[in-house]
Request: fold
Amino acid sequence: MDFALSEEQKMIQQTVRQFVTRELIPLENEVLRNEGKFPSGLEPEHYGALQQKAKDMGFWGINTPEEYGGANLGAVMSGLIAMEIGRTLVPFSFGGGADNILYLANEQQKAEYLVPTIEGKRHSCFALTEPEAGSDPSAIHATAVKDGGDWVINGQKVFITGGNEADFAMVFAVTDRNKPPQNGGVTCFLVDRSMGWTSRPVPTMGGWSPAELFFENVRVPADHVLGEVGYGFSLGMQWIGQGRWLIASRSVGTAERLLQMAVDYANQRVTFGKPIADRQAIQWMIADSQVEIQATRWLSLHAAWKTDQGLDNRHEASIAKLHGAGMVNRVVDRVMQIHGGMGYT
Reply:
């Protein structure tokens, strides 16, 4: 069992860290000032220029197969890159990618949706969550009824990432109430915004605004079914599964940067004649944070490794997400405490 990174992995990791340090972190104040104005906190032209700069460095299509012009670096490398991107609050992602389930489309659908998405000409969103179906996606109420050569979709989706900007959605709807959602009851459709669905932002405490999507008698041609009729639920789980361990990976980068800020401040902040870094209570918080970060790192990389091996990683990915999401919040709390009143500024 070898836990060491290869020289290539180390080189890519270091290059991404340099990109984050030089190109993204200096933009953080601007992103905060622009909260609510742009999806990324940056003007679209600026964001596109950053993606082009990254592309010129070879970072394009991280998970995209070579046949579509991507680098296809694999899940472990994607996890390592996500850790580096997580070090900044700028919501940046490298271009040239597409939703993993779009690769399961037929050739016509790939030409219409997959390839333009990879090229950045189209923008997708994943529409599964509903007001009464979040943690339990099998409880979705949106319906699709066959009418001649079309399916007619009615329903509502909520908290949809990218839903305000997307020009097409991967929509999950019940097509057979007599069958379980996991086996024959739910279908995934590729639905253009031009077919009639609408969206509106969901206000949040931060600058990021997910969307509500509304479908009222939206007619979708039968050839816009992704995969097979009745077997969309498994596609949704594939999409969600990839996101779980990547969330954990990003939390590692976020927590690492925060912890370094705490260490730096603890060494410079002096009380009663000594740096607070010499106080055992501070040392405990730093040590506990480092332990949790390291645990999340290996949980997420293990889930990624199983993906690269073609193994079922649902269990490991869920563990990584659960631990990582809690970990980063605990680290934030400790870092704020170490900074005292300055942590609230």
User: Anything to note?
Assistant: Residues 21 and 229 are 46 Å apart (CA to CA). The chain is about 45% helix and 15% strand. The mean pLDDT is 94.
